[in-house]
Structure formats: C-alpha cells, structure tokens
Amino acid sequence: MSGTSPPRFDEAFAAQFAELLAWRRDVRRFRREALPEGLIEALLAQAELSPSVGHSQPWRWVRVTDAAQREAVQASFARCNADALGDYEGERARLYASLKLEGLREAPEQIAVFCDHGTAQGHGLGRKTMPEMLDYSVVAAITQFWLAARVAGVGVGWVSIVEPEVVRTALGVPAEWKLIAWLCVGWPEADSEVPELVRAGWERGR
Amino acid sequence: MSGTSPPRFDEAFAAQFAELLAWRRDVRRFRREALPEGLIEALLAQAELSPSVGHSQPWRWVRVTDAAQREAVQASFARCNADALGDYEGERARLYASLKLEGLREAPEQIAVFCDHGTAQGHGLGRKTMPEMLDYSVVAAITQFWLAARVAGVGVGWVSIVEPEVVRTALGVPAEWKLIAWLCVGWPEADSEVPELVRAGWERGR
C-alpha cells in the first residue's frame, strides 16, 4: 500500500478527507445483516497503525458473538440508562428517554476494546508522569478504526453507558485489562452529517 | 465541503487513506520555519469534527508562543527525562539516552491540549459510569488533528514526558482543565513509515 517515499496528498484527497471527518458520526441505527468476511480484520489492521505511547500497542480487541455475553451487556446498559434517566427532570428527562443511544440489539458486530495494563511492551517509555497515556493510546486506535470503517461505508457506535466491571467479568478477560469502549459495528440504516444529539435538541436550553 | 447526501469513498481514496495511516508518525525532528497563516486554525476546525461524549466537545487548545512558558515546559521535560533515564540500566539506559523523544526547541508551533472538566455541555450524558469518556473525547480530537495535519504535510509529535501540574501552572489555565497532551507541530525534517522507536530498536530484547 505504501511505498518508500512519502505520499503527497493533493487537494482532491484533502477535500474527501474533510468529508470523511464530517460524515463519521456515532451510529446507533444498524441494518442487521452480517459484514463481509474479513472486513473487520482489515479495519483492525488499519486501527493498529495508530500511535501508542512508547510503541506499547496496548489495545486488545474482543469480538463478542456469544448471545449470553451480549445479553449481559444489554442488561448492564438497561440498568445504567435507567439510573441516568433518574438524574434528569421534567422536559430534559422526557427528551433523554426519547433518545436512541445505542444499537446493542441490532449491530451485527460488537467489539469490546480493552487496554492491557499488564503489557511489558514499550518498557514504560513516555508514561511515568502521565500513566493515562496507555489508555489514550487505545482511544487513538479506536478513532482510527472509526474513520477506517466509515471509509468502507461501515458505521460505528461507541457505547459508554455500561458498567466496565460487568463487561470485564462477562467476557472473562484478565483483571489487568481495562475496558475502554464497547463498539457496535455494522451497515448504518441512514447517514447524516449532523450528530444525533444535535438533531434531537439535547443542547437546547443549557 | 460536504453535501446533503452521504459521500461514497472509492478504492483510490481508500488506498490513499491507508497510506495516510501508515505515514502519520510521531515527529520529533522539525524544520523551524513558521507554518502558513491560518493553517493551524483550519486543522483545529477539522479536529473539532471529532466524536465527543454527549456532544460535550470538552477540548481546549492553547497555542503557546510565550518564550518563558515554553522554557518552563522544556525544563519540565528535562527533569522528567532524567528521572526516567534513572529507571533503566546498562544497554537499555544507553539506548534511552540516545533517543530523540521530542522537538520542544525546534517545532514552530506548540499546543497544549486540555480537557475542561468543568464544562456543562453535554449535560453529563454518557459519562456517569465511565467519567473518563470526557478525557477520551479530547484524545479522539487530537488523533483527528494529527491525521489532518499529515494530510497537509505537517508533522505532529505528542510529548507526555512532562509534569501536567507544571504545565497547567505555567500557562495559568483554570484548575478544572486537565492536561491531555503537549503537541509539537511543524514541517517534518524527514518522513518515514517506520516509527522512530522501532528504527532505534527500543523493542529489542524484551
């Protein structure tokens, strides 16, 4: 894909890249059909070109297909979402209840993304005064995954309304893996360049 | 830039996008000449198309031009780097001492990036069980800034070997702003698709 001399990106590419950023979006409405074989692997390979502190590459991707594991996460979302609703009052509570915040039941692919706090790779370089750099490295990789997916026409939604410990336990991953994200992935039902929360008016009256 | 119907990205774009990811790199060797007027603002506008939890957009960018402020950060790096060197022994200490880990003295643009923990935007949505999502939103924006910069041929280096509190105090930012990154930005002296730490053999003998 890449040669030995650095690429020069022309104006046409830059304009398309700007469109990619504008249309990336957090997707919560998915078609249920499976993605083509090998596509997720290709997208993850692009994500792993991401920067990481000390070249530690601490990302751990777990593709979750087991029905019981998925249900445990759906139940965690339902609990957390009901709890969050209780924090709002009046019109804002009504609005919150109307939001669709995840595609946990529809998205054909579900990926739990962890940061391996036990990794020796990188020999600690660059994270002595800012140990959170290890987690940030995983966030950067997720961001690249998101953009790479959108290039392929695939939608991604990041679900954070879950209990990290419940997810970790349900998947049986090592204790030193910290949950960074739960990703719903699939073909989007519809595209938009306006964020769903903006369309719903979540920022009104702040 | 973007129309009302979603863009379709063709194979030529996808191939160039893959090259962008491969050649992004953390840059530590910069030419000292200034960047064209308005370029940083354009790149930050692209970065701000990034996803953020609850549409909170908590990123705060501080372009640092003051010589005394820059020197305070260089001094912080020098302290932290000497301290980190003390953690390594023998051949690895020799290797660490030989690494060029930042371009603090050469990069014409220096940007401190903070997460505003005091923001009311987003009304707390999506970060009750994972409050760290606010910081992650800033990391995603930095990742997009990095890629947008590379599209324009501009290099970015993320410096984490500093004391966050020293940086915050030197810049006089509000107490609720958390330092996420110190970015060195400028034209790179040379491009490579191989990370500097890999070229230096930092992972050997792990």
Automatic annotation (TrEMBL), chains A, B:
* Position of the signal peptide: none
The molecular function terms of the Gene Ontology recorded here are:
oxidoreductase activity
Pfam families noted in UniProt: Nitroreductase
NCBIfam families per the record?
BluB
Every Nitroreductase domain range: 21-187
Give the source's domain of life in one word.
Answer: Bacteria
Q: What is this protein called?
A: Cob(II)yrinic acid a,c-diamide reductase
